[in-house]
Amino acid sequence: MSYDLHGKWDIGNEWLDPVLNSYTNLTEITNALDLIWRNDVPSDKVVLGLAFYACVFSAADPDCMDPGCPFVSGGNLRTYSDEVGILINSEIVDIMDEQKLSSKLDKDAAVKILKFNTN
C-alpha cells in the first residue's frame, strides 16, 4: 500500500511522532520499494494503490504548519467523508473554492499541500 503512511493514528504511536507528514510520500514509498526489490519480489506481484482522499490535521501551532511540525488531532470531519482526519477529493475542492486557496507542490515527496482555516 502506497498511502496511509501517516495520519491521525500517529498520535500515541511509539514508532512515529504526530507530525505533519503526508499520508503518501514518494520518498518514503521509494525507500519501501527498495526493500521489496532487494528481496527479489517480482514487480508484477506489487500493487501500490491509489487513494482518492486526503488526511488532514489540526496543527499544534498555527505558526508551524510545514512538514515535520506537530499536530494535535485529525482535521474536522466534513459532510461526506464523515470522519475526523479524512477529506474526500470533492470536499478538498469545495474548501479551495470557498476560501479561494491553491495548493503547494512538494516536488520531492510528490504531494500537494493545502493549508486552510487557522490550523
UniProtKB/TrEMBL annotation:
It comes from the Eukaryota. The keyword Zinc does not apply. Keywords: Chitin-binding, Virulence. GO terms for molecular function: chitin binding. PANTHER family: CHITINASE, V CHITINASE, PUTATIVE (AFU_ORTHOLOGUE AFUA_6G13720)-RELATED. This is Chitinase.
